[in-house]
Design goal:
- It contains 7 helices and 4 strands.
- It is of the alpha/beta class.
């Protein structure tokens, strides 16, 4: 006997829009023995989903979370692995109905999950390497990461002209449609970070 009663099979279903039908997923989850099913009508990319959050809070050690298909759960491979790893640490099983190999309550399914975790780590490392390579290549070409400067060379020339005619920095900045702070910074180092329009 697990704390909190007998182990439960809990389902989670999701569709992206209100125009889509949950029936297929709900029927499949009921056939899989789910006594309780949580669901969301939300994009998979959405960071918080009330139904998923409620399902994860409801689960107890010894329970199993069942979904119809793997893409119903995580926003990305990394997010999927994070959820399943959290379930594993809480002694909660995970099973996907249509992805039969993914069942952490079996040795083979656990192995598949570890492969997923390795791929997620690999994906993160690749993204990090690409970002570093991109920044290095930009630095070689004399560019720096970050946003393009607000004050272009032509705007700065116009600002100098307006200041020469007696306008204040605030008035000149308003005339060329930039902030007073941005103009002050450009005036302090006029050659730094300017681009042509």
């Amino acid at each position: 006997m697990f704390p909190g009663g007998d182990p439960k099979i809990v389902g989670y279903a999701r569709v992206s829009t209100a125009g889509q039908d949950l029936s297929l997923q709900l029927d499949s989850l009921a056939n899989a023995g789910c006594g309780r099913v949580f669901h969301d009508v939300a994009s998979g990319a959405k960071i918080t989903r009330q139904g998923l959050d409620a399902a994860l809070s409801y689960l107890r050690p010894g329970d199993t979370l069942v979904i119809w298909k793997i893409d119903r759960l995580g926003r990305s491979l990394g997010h999927l692995v994070q959820i399943i790893e959290d379930l594993r640490k809480r002694n909660i099983g995970f099973r996907s109905i249509t992805d039969a190999a993914i069942d952490t309550t079996t040795p083979g399914g656990t192995l598949i999950f570890h492969i997923f975790a390795s791929l997620a780590t690999f994906e993160r490392e690749l993204i990090g390497e690409r970002t570093k390579a991109g920044l290095s290549a930009a630095a070689v070409r004399g560019r720096r990461g970050g946003r393009r400067p607000v004050v272009t060379a032509s705007k700065l020339a116009k600002a100098h002209d307006l200041l020469g005619k007696g306008l204040s920095v605030r008035q000149a900045a308003a005339a060329i449609k930039i902030s007073k702070t941005a103009l002050y910074e450009a005036l302090r180092s006029p050659a730094e970070g300017l681009s042509e329009e």
